[in-house]
Write a structure and sequence with these properties.
Elements: E1 2-8, H1 20-23, H2 28-41, E2 44-50, H3 54-67, E3 70-74, H4 83-91, E4 95-100, E5 122-125, H5 130-140
Parallel strand pairs: 1-2, 1-3, 3-4, 4-5
Helix pairs in contact: 3-4
Length: about 150
């Protein structure tokens, strides 16, 4: 059974309240419930965590070297400037998929660059919570060459 760590970055605890015109009305609890259900259907052991603190996210990535087979991460605003999270992701030998609820390339110019993307397996943006499910499907299908 694959073990997947989902890391929700800063401000994702405010889903459902923060800019619903951009992020929709779904809360983080709603999103995690969807993810746990999708993981069960794919025989994946899932753990979801959220932090507004860069150092805590880095520690989780480091520990994932031993505790997980893959990571799905939405680094939030850290996407655009956290070389520390980028270096943490590059330092482990795990599949990592970067996910964003909104299409970061259709938003403010400063959101168009991800410093994380060059060191992860792929990036999914603009599909809301379905992006997390797509990442989970990609990870679950790795052994089947899907």
């Amino acid at each position: 059974m694959k073990r997947v760590l989902v890391i929700h970055g800063p401000n994702l605890n405010m889903l459902g309240k923060r800019e619903p015109e951009v992020y929709g009305g779904e809360t983080l609890t709603d999103l995690n419930e969807k993810l746990y259900k999708a993981a069960d259907q794919r025989n994946v052991q899932l753990e979801c965590r959220q932090s507004n603190y860069e150092g805590e996210i880095i520690e989780w990535i480091h520990r994932a070297e031993e505790e997980a087979d893959a990571i799905i991460i939405n680094p939030g605003a850290f996407t655009h400037y956290s070389y520390a999270i980028r270096d943490a992701a590059a330092s482990i030998n795990k599949t990592i998929i970067e996910v964003h609820l909104s299409n970061i390339y259709k938003r403010e110019t400063f959101r168009h660059e991800s410093v994380i993307a060059p060191v992860v397996a792929g990036q999914i943006s603009g599909f809301g919570s379905k992006g997390y499910i797509l990442a989970l499907e990609a990870i679950a299908g790795e052994d089947n060459n899907e």
